[in-house]
Amino acid sequence: MSNEIVKFSNQFNNVALKKFDAVHLDVLMAIASRVREKGTATVEFSFEELRGLMRLRKNLTNKQLADKIVQTNARLLALNYMFEDSGKIIQFALFTKFVTDPQEATLAVGVNEEFAFLLNDLTSQFTRFELAEFADLKSKYAKEFYRRAKQYRSSGIWKISRDEFCRLLGVSDSTAKSTANLNRVVLKTIAEECGPLLGLKIERQYVKRRLSGFVFTFARETPPVIDARPVEARKTDGDGKGHWTSVAGYGEVFTTTELFDVTAARDHFDGTVEAGECRFCAFDARNREHHARNAGMLF
């Protein structure tokens, strides 16, 4: 299966996914990878496809997987979301359509128009990561830490208070109150799973000998530089004459009217599609200079 990308607004990282286990998180991120930039259109999955996206290590029956899917949406509905601009707190109904069919082994999902901004038209202030890397992590704490670290991928540093860290990662009260338990159950797990992957270092901060917060540092991500090479132009059904087309928030691509597609152009700029498979890179070598790069906004 191709390397799927998860991409959502940074605001989603402020939502604490309480009572989610590792499988629930994998279900959610697998869905997010496929509904992004689809607006509110219904997206259908087969259970076989979902298993592949989740890289399931357990042999779940269709009934067991269906139960996990339904539980995932039920847990989302139990959450509250606060809009940053108005301070309103509303029920977190991310999906208006969520139909699970164990008999047909299918799932149909439609994103709530009110929350579509979390997964669509993202040109800045978003989190982006590879679904396979996320799914390969075993612990819910490692997964929840990983997506927050990816929010700060360009700086390579995340500073956070102890209380907010525990809230965001859904740490139980009994574990959060005990420094020993927090170290053993949460931080040790994160260090073991995310350490080699991210080059992670954890600095603990104290106030009057009490653990008050953390400074996490990890490898910074920089956009890959794609060398411009001669590429044979792709023939189109039009007149074959190219022109520069502006993509809001990204830049310009040299294309034709027949070839241009705004979603494909965004994938070109953020590197979701490999350069070797990119329609714009194949059409004109000049486009390769800007593949997976957007003046530092995307990485």
From TrEMBL:
The keyword Acetylation does not apply. Keywords: Plasmid. Transmembrane segments: none annotated. GO terms for molecular function: DNA-directed DNA polymerase activity. InterPro entries: Initiator_Rep_WH1, WH-like_DNA-bd_sf, WH_DNA-bd_sf. Residues 5-148 form the Initiator Rep protein WH1 domain. Pfam families: Rep3_C (PF21205), Rep3_N (PF01051). GO terms for biological process: DNA replication initiation. The keyword Transcription regulation does not apply. It comes from the Bacteria. Belongs to the initiator RepB protein family. This is Initiator RepB protein.
